[in-house]
User: What shape does this take?
Amino acid sequence: MHPIKEMTRSNKTNLNHHMWNNNGVWFLQYTVYPTPVTKERVRRSLRTRSFTEARKLRDEILKDYFNDLYRSTS
Assistant: This one.
């Protein structure tokens, strides 16, 4: 199995997966695996109070992350 496939989980029923609202500001959280035996939880502010904008930013950030990851493993 491809290492990226092994580490990803999709939650098709929760469209807000990886997001949470902290006092009105949206945040993104995801886990990366720099080595086969370590993991790192990434938490970052999306710096918006807009739910729609937060989803858009989350999708862009994760898309960029996975594109970079695919390039580095190719």
